[in-house]
């Protein structure tokens, strides 16, 4: 039997992880699937080292806890996503002061290199919007996995209120192709890339 290439294996692992996450989301068990992917499949396909993945998980846990425990921000839907110690801060708040406060609260979290504050001043995204965001994320991931010019395992996709954020260690033409793929998914209102160039 002909051996599969490393790229092919990584793409198949990515497809399995995407399918598991989507299935679990539909069953209301996204946390279980995400945890399994992070500890298993993700570590195989992720270009980050295991140490970097653990650092990112720790940053997310600590920063999200700070936001949730803040007496002024705890009622708002704010979220931190970390990739290679670059932090994406997203969500909705009623004013600029709250937006700045969110960044200030997480800024002293150990391990953070940069913060991309993408919190929007608007009303909170409802359940239907969150469901649509999950669908958009799954579609972007599937289209990335189907494209042979982009390694989908290098790109982390986050969708918030119709906006797609792309994180990862990606450079050159691959970054532009990934943006173009995401831009052409139905329901996407904007694509923001926060890629780090390959070392």
TrEMBL record:
Pfam families: BON. Residues 55-123, 132-199 form the BON domain. Keywords: Signal. Residues 1-30 form the signal peptide. This is Osmotically-inducible protein OsmY.
